[in-house]
Amino acid sequence: MKINSSKSELRGTIIVPGSKSHTIRAVLLATMAEGKSTIRNPLPSNDCKSAAHAARLFGAQVEEADGVWYIQGAGSQLKVPDDIVDCGNSGTATIFVMGMAALLKGYAVITGDEQIRRRPVHWLVNALNALGARAMLTRPDHQAPPVVVGGPLQGGTAVFDGFNSQVISATMLSSAICGHQVEIKVDHPLEKPYLQMTIDWMKTFGVDFVEKSNDYSHFVLDGQGKYHAVDAVVPSDWSGVAFPLVASIITPSDVVIEGLDFYDAQGDKAVVDHLLRMGAKIEKDEAKGRLHIIGGSPLKSGIEINLNDTPDALPALAVAAAFAEGATTFTGLSHVRVKETDRVAVMEEMLGRLGVKTDTTKDSMVVYGGKGLKGDVVASQKDHRIAMALAVAGLASEGVVTVEDAECADVSFPGFYQQMNKLGANFQEA
Q: pTM of this prediction?
């Protein structure tokens, strides 16, 4: 599907769906738990449905109702999947399922779509083998799925370089209930809010452990925990909030975003503060969980933004930077290059098509903004955050921006274009 995006004025209220990162953690923890869990406000996106599909293969019963999912956990009866576990486009589900498979007396074959089969997972393969499980990559000279993983974990020490938080989270989730002590050491941990999110969900499901360093670099899990069923609510997705937020500040707008939790572990809520530094008119109401944005005022930059802990924010913030007078420098981007796409390279190319000058290195990106954007055809590369960012850019550009493969936005924000059109966005299917 192609989406044509053109100049718009936005008015009204929008509620962003539940968080993908929270939903996947809740689904897979409920799978490993004893009893029936109730997960409210889950994100019914393709990635989260991939996690639910995996949960069923591991022995859980999943009922997907409107606004709530019920999951009868497999608990101690977690079973070896009788089919290949296809995690679709979900990198988080792929990694977490690998960790869960390491609990089994048997083997699981885990894979995903074309993008997942290019995303490295060797860090977790090495860690699981160090902990006594049996994990292997299936293709010579490839560090990506398909992978074969079996267990059970025997305990020991896993060492990570901190580059990818998901592999650390996956190890924590399974080590907590493996029956043996596991020590996790992390050199220069990145994406720390995601590690805290994992810790918070583990506590919600009844398992606590020792974080010995106070900087997410050293964990000890005794392996004697047990997850118990919960009734829990998934917070709105701050990563998704970034797109209507940026759309509202770059257009003549009066928009309220509701249903937010300012105290949640999600790091992407920092996007609000970054935009405030650019001069955006945003009013926070933490008590009511809402943002009020008055858009259309000139933005100024000249700032540096480190995205070590919030890599998913780059596409949206790069668009905001393109409309802000001056240079915006983004740093801490090496791990942004190994998401669904190399998001640094893709945003550099696509912003270039729209007339925006950028400079990039392996770990940084400078966006020279404030000159205005022109219309053109741009490619999402089937990356949901790229698709939404480029569509948002078109709302304040001179001329029409046509986004190819725009339907991939459903991965994390189902109905994005329809919800934005209710605010006045001019998104039209080409």
A: 0.90
